[in-house]
Each structure stands twice: as C-alpha cells, then as structure tokens.
Amino acid sequence: GKQKITDKTIGKICHAHNLSVEWVKSGVGSMMVPATTKGNFFSPDGIYAEDSEVLIGDAVLKERIKNLQQQIQDLQGEKKAWRLNEKVIDFIFFSDATSRRMAKEQPEDEGLFRISPKMLIRAAAFFQGKCLANFEDIGYSNIEEVTQALVAKFPADIPDRSMVQFKIVNLDNGKVYVYEHQKGKGF
C-alpha cells in the first residue's frame, strides 16, 4: 500500500540533508539550504526545532528573548550577591579585624567579665549552629561553674574534639562573654 508522506517527515528529511522544504514540495526556489548546526536553527521567520516542524513566530521569539535577557540580569544580580556573601564569610572566619559595629558597641576598656552568685546569668551553648543547652539563673560564682552547668545538659552524641561555642550574658550589667571550647579539652 501507498502512504502519504507527512509534512513532519518531509521537514525532517529536508533538515537532515539541507534541502529546501519549498523546493521538495513544489520544485520552486533553491534546492539547498545553507548548512546549520545540529539542534535548533534560526531563520528570518523564527526558530525551527530539529525534532519537529514547530515554527516559533517572530512575536513569540521576541518575547522569549526578552525573558532570557531578564533571566541573565537576575543571574548577574545573584553573582553579585554571592560575591558579597564570600566577602562577609572571609571577614567573619578569616580576619582578625574588628567590625565597625563591634567597635562602636564595645568601649576600649571593657574591664573583666565578672559574675557573682547574686547576679542573674543567661547562658547558652551552641554546636554547629544549634543550641545544645541554655538557662537563666543566679548562684554562679565563675565562668567554669556556668560552663559545667551547660555541659551537664549536653546530649551524649557530640563527637570528641568538636568545638562548642558558649555565650554568657550578665543580665545585671549587660556584659557578654563568648568563648569556645573543644570537647575533650575544655570540657
């Protein structure tokens, strides 16, 4: 039996052999089309996809190009944000300089961080950004007692040689003491 060749099949054959669809169907015009690369290719009328005869018209093409340009601008904005994040991380973790905010908040002569059993203390311990233990209480004479009270509340699954950050706030005078200890050495 004879079957009629579909326009899609003609388009694929023409594309594979760089033949003009118009010439194959009617014999009019140039037989050959300039070679294109594999994949999608452009024409004055729009974009042809390699695997179909879909033609994207001029208006749709312009809208897609406009959307792509917007996406490129968004990506460039994200790159700037990532560069800023990298600078912040470098400053926080790899610099010994004092930030402007900390310089304003802390006077040159901070004095010693002192606590007594009559002072209200708020203490917290952090591991990998998570709060392991915290409390607010009176009755502590020194930082070591506060540290021991926090460590007693730690879960057992913290690996040895892990760094734990401690923050103690003297709520009576507003002074803050932040330090870190390694499990197995500091506690």
Describe, in plain words, how this protein is organized in 3D.
By secondary structure, this protein is α+β, with helices and mostly antiparallel strands. The protein has helices at residues 7-17, 21-26, 58-94, 100-105, 143-151; strands at residues 41-43, 46-48, 55-56, 121-127, 130-137, 163-170, 176-182. The strands form two sheets. The chain has a four-stranded antiparallel β-sheet with strand order 5-4-6-7, with helices on one face. A three-stranded antiparallel β-sheet has the order 1-2-3. Strand 1 (41-43) and strand 2 form a beta hairpin. The chain starts with 6 loop residues before the first helix and ends in a 5-residue tail after the last strand.
SS elements, strand count: 7
The oligomeric state is single chain
What kind of sheet is the major sheet?
4 strands, antiparallel
How many helices? The count is: 5
Global geometry: elongated
Runs in which pLDDT lies below 50 for 5 or more consecutive residues are none
Termini, distance in Å?
Answer: 89 Å
| Global structural class | alpha+beta
CA radius of gyration? 35 Å
- Tell me roughly what share of residues is in helical segments: 25-40%
What is the typical, i.e. mean, pLDDT?
A: 77
Portion of residues in beta strands equals 15-25%
Helix and strand string, N-terminal first? HHEEEHHEEHEE
Q: Which sequence of strands runs across the widest sheet?
A: 5-4-6-7
